[in-house]
Automatic annotation (TrEMBL):
Species annotation: Aquirufa echingensis
Lineage: Bacteria, Pseudomonadati, Bacteroidota, Cytophagia, Cytophagales
Family: Belongs to the acyl coenzyme A hydrolase family.
Name of protein: Acyl-CoA thioesterase
E.C. numbers: 3.1.2.20
Top-level class of the enzyme under EC nomenclature: hydrolase
Amino acid sequence: MEINQKSALDSETEYTELMIPSYANFGGKIHGGILLSLMDKVAFICASKHSGQYCVTVAVEGVEFKQAVEVGELVTIKASVIFVGKTTMIVGMRVESFKPTEGIIRHTNSCYFTMAAKDSEGNLAVVPGLILKTDEQLRRYCKGKIIRKLSLEKRELLKSAVKDQLIQDLRQECQEVDKCFIA
Ligand SMILES: CC(C)(COP(=O)(O)OP(=O)(O)OC[C@H]1O[C@@H](n2cnc3c(N)ncnc32)[C@H](O)[C@@H]1OP(=O)(O)O)[C@@H](O)C(=O)NCCC(=O)NCCS
């Protein structure tokens, strides 16, 4: 049986966009939602390159905005598929912002998106395995494995933890330690 595999390099993507005034928020900085939309676009590009299928966003596993982005800067997203499951892929992205007048590149944020591959009928499709050729790709893969594990644990915890607890226990727990006021 032929095993379908692709190199991490095959999905590598670099996408640059100029931050125009209509992308700014009331504070004059670039709106976080604009960056999320760009990241979603890039995640789709990487996932469809790897899977050869139409892809959908399943989850934003983590976004950290380290620094604000300004109007007039060039935002570059460097990304690739870093981990594959059966039908899903985790795309890792590094976002950098470049101010042409100063020549400085800043690392503004990093993020991980889980994308699923779908066939022409809209069913989940099995994705190719991932060939890792460098130590860096191996490191990213292992990070992806942790992200997948945490994502599954989070989902399970959210499903069961609160539902199965008695309301009086929840009330007591919240009143004792949290800054909430139960009326
Ligand atoms: C997300 C989706 C694919 C899950 O389908 P499902 O049949 O309920 O999922 P399953 O439990 O069989 O899991 C299928 C895969 O999705 C992953 N998955 C499911 N829910 C997930 C979540 N909340 N976060 C991360 N991964 C998730 C599973 O780990 C599994 O991965 P694997 O095949 O690589 O091991 C499906 O609900 C879907 O298509 N959602 C709509 C996505 C979409 O349209 N996005 C665009 C938003 S506008």
